[in-house]
Amino acid sequence: MVPVAQFSALDRANARTVGPQDSVSQRISIDLILLATVWDSLNHTLFGNIARPMRATAPRSVNEIPWYGQQEAHRVAYLDVLGRLDRATFSHEDTVLLDIQATIVRSTGWWWAFDGVCVLAERPAVLCATPTTNGVHNERWLHNVSGHAVEFADGSGVYAYDGIVVPEWVICDPTAERIAREPDPAIRRCAIARFGAERYLEEARMRLVGMDDDARLYSDGHRQLLVLGQPATATLNVPASARTAREALAWTRGLRGDAA
Amino acid sequence: MNVDVCKGIQAQGPIVVIPMFAAGRAVTVDPKRKPHSVPEEGIELLVTRGCSHRLLSGSATLTAVRDTEHLAPGLLDVTGRAYVVHPDYPPIGIGPGRYVIRRQRELAVRGR
């Protein structure tokens, strides 16, 4: 079994925010560093940022208790590292089992085990992932601006931008009209980034009304848009009654006036 | 945890931590609702990007509230320190005090 229970959730969360070098100088325990750098970071990249968003696009029947093959490499990698660094000892049976699991991780995509039958899926032919914005352990997420972020040999796949699975139009044919009609703020933010924020504001005839710290309020005379962060981390529709960026930000937080 | 704590308004993506005094009269506490200690493994506040914004603290309680703005998962009372963590966002640290935890909103747009 994997010795994850011996650390508090707070200690684990802290280790995830500190890079490997700084972890040593901050005297974080070696077992916690290994957990953060190998188990947590690989689990987040492979399962959290790849398997989970792919699963969300698959038919429900596919989701029934699959094993995730290469996207579960964190389990094998972590035990492998513990063994190599003499942090754990394995019996002969453990080693045989770990070798089998390592072979599965190296050679298959998702797989399903039934009585007497095992179904193995091919791994994706293409998988494009880029470093996440805030990861310090080389975590990655799905991202490709020139086609599918994940593509299988038959040409099927999913599009993704900055770790968000997006409809095809966001990557292949974004327009100001489609962006304005997009109800999901996460997809809208990706579409604006893909299209070009300046170009979008110009084509949508959005003029800067005011700014406050990293919040900017734009208006076309009817619709108002609040852009947070530089580059934008959120692009939110706000009521036309908001007169300043600060008032608009306060409204998104359910606060009155300019209390943001 | 290795993060500065703050007593003002803080945001982590769509999760916003607001000092109770700033939330005004919108938020009221139902006296029948009991405060719950934040458990060791933390409390999931909201899921974005497939992962939870998790509240962690050894010295805080969370109480369900009535919020006329319908945005508040709860009222947070911190005696020591509390943190909100998410694998894709920088963590935020919360100092002693009483806060409302809200979800950021936007104006609904007509769908495609």
Quick overview:
The complex is a heterodimer of chains A (260) and B (112). With 260 residues, chain A is of the alpha+beta class. Chain A contains ten helices and twelve strands.
Query: How many separate helices of chain A?
Result: 10
Strand elements of chain B, count: 13
Taking all Cα atoms into account, the compactness measure Rg of chain B is 14 Å
> Strand count, sense and closure of the main sheet of chain B?
6 strands, antiparallel
Helix content range of chain B: under 10%
Termini gap of chain B = 44 Å
Shape, principal axes of CA atoms of chain A: globular
Oligomer: heterodimer
Helix content range of chain A:
40-55%
Class inferred from helices and paired strands of chain A: alpha+beta
The proportion of strand residues of chain B reads: over 45%
| Low-confidence sequence ranges of chain B | none
**Derived structural class of chain B:** mainly beta
- Arrangement of strands in the largest sheet of chain B: 2-3-13-10-8-5
Count helical runs of chain B: 1
Which of globular, elongated, flat, extended, rod-shaped describes the shape of chain B? globular
Mean pLDDT of chain A: 92
SSE order of chain A, as H and E?
A: HHHHHEEEEEEEEHHHHEEEEH
Q: How are helices and strands ordered from N to C of chain B?
A: EEEHEEEEEEEEEE
The main pleated sheet of chain A reads as: 4 strands, antiparallel
Features:
heterodimer, A: 260 residues, alpha+beta, four-stranded antiparallel sheet, 10 helices, 12 strands, globular, B: 112 residues, mainly beta, six-stranded antiparallel sheet, five-stranded mixed sheet, 1 helix, 13 strands
